[in-house]
Amino acid sequence: MSIYKSAVKRPITTLMIFMAIIVMGIYSVVHLPVDLYPEIEFPAITVMTTYPGASASDIETNVSKVIEDGMNSVDRLKDISSVSYENLSVVTLEFQYETNLDEASNNIRDALDLIEKQLPDGCEKPVIFKFNSSMMPVLFYAVNAKESYPGLEKILDEKIINPLNRVDGIGSVGLAGQPNRVIYVNVDPSRLDAYHMTIGQIGNVIRAENQNTPSGNVKMGKMDYQLRVEGEFTDSRQLNNIIVGTSDGHPVYLRDVATVKDTLKDTGLHERINGQRGLRMFVMKQSGANTVKVAREVKKHLAELEKTLPPDVKIETIFDSSDFIKDSVSNLSQTLMFALLFVVLVVLAFLGRWRATFIVALTIPISLIVAFIYLYISGNSINVISLSSLSIAIGMVVDDAIVVLENISTHIERKSSPREASIYATNEVWLSVIVTTLVIVAVFFPLTLVSGMTGVMFRQLGWIVTITVVTSTVAAITLTPMLSSKLLKLQPKKEKPSRFSYDNTFLRALNALDRGYEKAIKWSLHHKKVILLGALAIFLSSMYLAKNLGTDFMPQTDESRIQLKIELQSGTRVEVTDKVAREVEGIVHQKAPEVKLISTSTGSDDSGGFISMFSQTGSNIINMMMALDKPSQRHRSVWEVAAALRKQLDEIPEVENYSFTFTSGMEASNTVDVYIYGYDFNTTSHLANVIASGIKEIKGASDVQISRDKEKPELKVVLDRDKLALHGLSTASVSAMIRNRVEGLTATEYREQGDEYDVIVRYSPKYRSSITDLENISIMTPAGKYIKLKEIGKVEEYWSPPNIEHRQRERVVKVSVTPYKTSLGQLAGQIQQKIDKLDVPTGVMIDVGGAYEDQQESFTDLGLLLLLSLVLVFLVMASQFESFKMPFIIMFSIPFSFAGVVLALLITGTDLNLVAALGAVLLVGIVVKNAIVLVDYTNLMRDRDMELYDAIRVAGKSRLRPVLMTALTTILGMLPMAISGGEGAEIWRPMGISVIGGLVFSTFITMIIVPVLYAVVSKKGERDKKTALRKKFIFMDKK
């Protein structure tokens, strides 16, 4: 028994099956997490290594290069790059997509174990970071304090961070720019020399004194006592009373040679929130957790926890990703509801019956809810990609139900009973319905196979549309006939319809449209050359206009957030940089009233913490994070606000460079990067400056950045090897002694209330503030003799780069530029023209990449996807028609959909980005589906012995409404997406414009050009048929 016959004969079973699907769908919707994008695991792993006090050159030679060489043999490695900063090495390993990053991480750890001994002394253990979207903070807070500032880290740790870490879904809560308590032992070197002591000796004494040591058990009477020697300091002031040596039989106390200072650690990083001293707190979620739910729980708990803080501690929100996600998803959900309403109204307008409309409309929620079951089972989330996919599918899921219902209605009008009509009518069309669905699947399913960034971002779209369309087909051949057998009935004809009835309004308009289209077909069939030449002219004109179309990678979104990086002259002291930062803060408050909060970070993050992975730091660098009002609450976009601030920043003489970014960090960048490879610093730096100057002349080029900062002054110790040997010293031993005296020696940890604080022994700052001071550092020889550093070497000033980049293990400098009011592709083309005119020195190579390179790779992937879709569609249609000619006739309508896309993008001023291009590819299945309906019915009429032109005319007239209905349901289903202006609309609007433009244009062209082309291709077959018939009659006459 066939599936549709079973569905009609067992209506309760059929209904219960679909009810079960609805229940599972509702359960899935309730338990699905909500996020902006699907969770993305980028195929990249970063190895961060901190080497305190080292210059960028030292980091490059002793750390970055060592790690690069060790990592080069790791499996499936695609690219390796590094940046060597002061104190910090960041090596990034990029792998092939679909690489198992857990296995890659283990391979990296094994490689690091092998090279660990090659790293210099004082270098901290390398830390591995594996990137995915859950690593990005979902919440950023600004924390201000006045009197409580020195102990702010401990206060937040106890009262905020620890309780929040217990909240379900939170991965971690961290701080940036926090004040760290430390105990400095500032030594007077003259007194130290007078007592013949060294930093190392004092450190050893402090370490030995600050211990609690178990000393065995003592049995006394009936008791067994554990004996301990209590030596740990209970107060930092006790350090002053330690005896560190003797002189002439008298004890020498630590206070005699040093000053103990319990204070905040010296740092080159200044944090300020709205002009006041503070720090940043960030919250990261667990992988797979619901971003919106996590943010809601954090805010709920934080409201209670804030009550336990001291009165002067204030917490304000800098950035809440859940707000943008909620607004985007809500906006897209409203778009989906409007699309549903439009689709239902179109069906009602064409069918004119509420019951029939209800049957067709019921297909929509059933088909869509299966998509949520898929999302739940596959561990995905509700996000803009999944909801956009449903918006695309919503106009197509009713197509099959319309075809089945229309045929059932026809049988009922011929006096068949609803039950019989439902079975017989479905039997007539079920195969063509399945084949038509296969055409859609042939376009969308290959999207699940695409690799690279395109596949990662849009694989979900391929699965959702495929699943919803297949589900709609199953519903069309089961649920639709079952409901039709119960709800449809033959309507008695009204003697005199009312003036505003369906028959006198919509039906009359549709009949007039039928007659007009029939006349158009008649005229076209007798003027085939005019039609074909006109169509060719339209297509060629649109392709000519396409050269005016700008190209981009991914749409940029206004997330009410601006990040500003400002660079001053290299080597500028952090105090000077901080003064400029305050000036910039004043400008922002004055010129950008939309900004409600500014978080300013000035200087260098020497600790190599989490924030240093995402922003460059340095004594001459200012990083600002600005939180703005929502887009609906302001008149200017983030890009317009940035443009206004650029004019003011250009007038500050100390500012050498600056750049703006507007995304939350995981979205695609929008820059053109010019990579200049070469070992010689002077050559590549000069070439980078020449290229940057040329780029600044291009209209629309903004935020031109050179990744290599200008050289900054540094000091180096040049040792005389002969004198070293004379005193029995080595470079390593002298280097360690200098480091202990300048950077300091961590002697021990002071414990207080469960927390540990470093005790650092070093020269007092006033004895290491000049070259003379450094040359007077005392060095102890193996013989116990004290000599000055100047006796074995000298201290010289020189210029060194503050950061050194490598790519593919070669030195590289990058020039980055962001397009403003121009497209990425146009800007890249103009840059390439300037590069082509350069005289590039030998040994130097220039390459253009960045987001432009990603765009080219993604467009290539889409090109391959288009080719695969065309082949699969042809295979399906050739099998359906048992012909090679018919698929070519149908596929002739595809180029005109691309012409429509070009015109729509030009009219709306939208650039061709990845989302718009994807919409153009997906049009293949939608456009072909309409042409199939037309050609299939024409073949049916010819099989009934109709003349060629009569068959084309009758088929066109009878199939006009189904074609228009399916086209309009898709167009109106996408319309809310194309015209939406809410939060996050920038992401999906290009796809709506692309699909609507292509479908509107191709539908009009298809309804004319396909019949004409059918007539041209079939005319020879018609002549052959008549010739054969004539020969038959001649043979009969002879007989």
TrEMBL record:
Keywords: Membrane, Transmembrane, Transmembrane helix. Pfam families: ACR_tran. SUPFAM superfamilies: Multidrug efflux transporter AcrB pore domain, PN1, PN2, PC1 and PC2 subdomains, Multidrug efflux transporter AcrB TolC docking domain, DN and DC subdomains, Multidrug efflux transporter AcrB transmembrane domain. Coiled coil: none annotated. The chain crosses the membrane at residues 12-30, 332-351, 358-377, 389-408, 429-449, 461-484, 530-546, 862-881, 888-908, 914-939, 960-979, 991-1017. One of its GO terms (molecular function) is xenobiotic transmembrane transporter activity. The keyword Transmembrane applies. InterPro entries: AcrB_DN_DC_subdom, Acrflvin-R. This is HAE1 family hydrophobic/amphiphilic exporter-1. GO terms for cellular component: plasma membrane.
